[in-house]
Amino acid sequence: MSDTKRILSVVNPRTGQPDYEIEAASPQQVASEARRLRAAQPGWQARGMAGRSAALNGLADALERHRDAVARALEIDTGRRRLARSEVD
């Protein structure tokens, strides 16, 4: 395997111009993250319905608190100004 890093340009959908670059994860990094997530799944299941609901409600609360910032980021990422807020909501 090569140690060459793969750099991806992130293109602004509204302007068609590159906004920034990111380093792509290697196949090994993806596999490692998949293993980590699979290992965490039994803990998520063990929370039960009430525990999972509480965690998801916490996520919803955080999205509500940071609604404007998330909508701005979504708008930048997708180029959909009008839909960004409704997608966050």
Which helices and strands appear, and what pairs or packs with what?
Blueprint lengths: L6 E5 L6 E6 L3 H20 L1 H18 L1 H12 L2 H8 L1
Antiparallel strand pairs: 1-2
Helix pairs in contact: 3-4
Summarize this structure as a short list of keywords or feature phrases.
alpha+beta, two-stranded antiparallel ribbon, 2 strands, flat
Task: Characterize the structure shown.
The chain has helices at 27-46, 48-65, 67-78, 81-88; strands at residues 7-11, 18-23. Strand 1 and strand 2 (18-23) form a beta hairpin. Helix content is 65%, strand content 12%. Helix 3 (67-78) packs across helix 4. The chain has 4 helices and 2 strands; from the N terminus they run E-E-H-H-H-H. It is an alpha+beta fold and 89 residues long. The chain has a two-stranded antiparallel ribbon with strand order 1-2. It is flat, with a radius of gyration of 18 Å.
**Helix proportion:** 55-70%
Shape: flat
Q: Helix-strand pattern, N to C?
A: EEHHHH
Rg value? 18 Å
In whole angstroms, the N-to-C terminal distance is 44 Å
- Contiguous low-pLDDT stretches (5 residues minimum) are none
The secondary structure category is alpha+beta
Helix tally? 4
Overall pLDDT confidence: 92
Measured by DSSP, the beta-strand proportion falls in 5-15%
What topology, given as strand order, has the largest sheet? 1-2
Q: Biggest sheet, open or closed, and with what strands and sense?
A: 2 strands, antiparallel
Number of strands: 2
Short description:
The protein is an alpha+beta fold. The protein is 65% helix and 12% strand.
